[in-house]
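[agent] plan:
  1. take the single chain provided in the ticket
  2. run structure prediction with default settings
  3. attach structure tokens to the ticket
  4. add a short note for the reviewer (M.T.)
[agent] executing step 1
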Amino acid sequence: MLIYENIRLALFSLKANKMRALLTMLGIIIGISSVIAIMTVGNSLTASVTDSMSSMGANNITVGLQQKSEEEEVTEEGIRFEESGSVKTPDEDDYFTREMLENYCDTYADSITAISASQSVGSGQITDGGLYANISMLGCSVGYYLANDISVSDGRLFSERELDDASKVAIISDKAVNNMFDGNAEDALGSIIQVNAGDKYYNFTVVGIYEYETSSFGFSSSSEKEITTTMYIPLKTAMELTHTTGYQQFTVVTASGIDSDEFAETTESFFNTYYRNNRDFEVSAYSMASMVETLSSMLSTITTAIAVIAGIALIVGGIGVMNIMLVSITERTREIGTRKALGAPNSSIRLQFIVESIVICLVGGIIGIILGIILGIAAASLLGTAATPSLGSIIISITFSMAIGVFFGYYPANKAAKMDPIEALRYE
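[agent] step 2 finished; step 3 output follows
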């Protein structure tokens, strides 16, 4: 009942001094709204980036060759040194072989959904008289489409026979269709296109068309006509064109329910048995899930750090609250003296002013939260991401507001409680 009465008195005091109360709460409002807005934008960006990366294959494991660390040697005199750090390039003898991948798939058949392997042939152009389309030729296995979430809008993917027979078939982008066939997909499908790559000319039959999407991680200043898009061909075809027999790297699509981080370590151990005697290279495997987790953690840390810096305004706001409470106590000295003369204990006086300080900070905190959410949503929409207000930061902000009220309100409240009633009643 006493607390309720003190809250009522505090609200009455705020209503009686609206402008002073607003100016007092301004530091709290700015601090809370800044923290909420920053946390909202930070969470939104984190969610957007991690969703984008997850859509690229959260359960995918990339396996590749990594140069071994230079071995330390010791001379007869006991001097230690490392060989000079030269960068080595893997050759055919170092590549993963088809037999390695087949053994791997047989050994872990229950843990693997698909193997995605690719081979770049190089950049070039589809040409037909004065018409052209810039392309990058990439040979890919059937698992590549699953690992990279590629689907065709017109036509079809490669058949098993085309993949096995190294057929000269291709899947091109809608941008290439716009340049070469005036956007007519029906004319493009089944047509034979001439590709100039590396000063060599190849003929391919178009069997599929995919919709080109601009990467969210990059920006191209090229015009629509000059954009380079990928032209997919069967992996075996690409390997014959480039005269390669192995793979520098590949991607594993793990089965549902498999811990990709743990399976990445298993994969690394499996292939390193083949590279035990390789002097220059070893196998490295990492999962997209670990990359997403690391990136998410990094963004969250940055967001929190910026929010803490913005929260310094709360300290300034707290000092403002303490200052105005001291002024309020001075103005109400006779009221305090009267209450003490009528028998009010020190604890009652102290509680009255602490509650008033908490109410000021709490009202300012609520206004700051509302303003912060509005600013956060507006900023997130400008960045093109869905706003994700942080419930945790809102709860912390409310709690922190009340804590500031107690901390900065205690000294003025204690000063009021220790007033001598006779001196207070004499105060003019």
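[agent] step 4 note for reviewer: The first strand starts at residue 60 and ends at 67.
[agent] ticket updated
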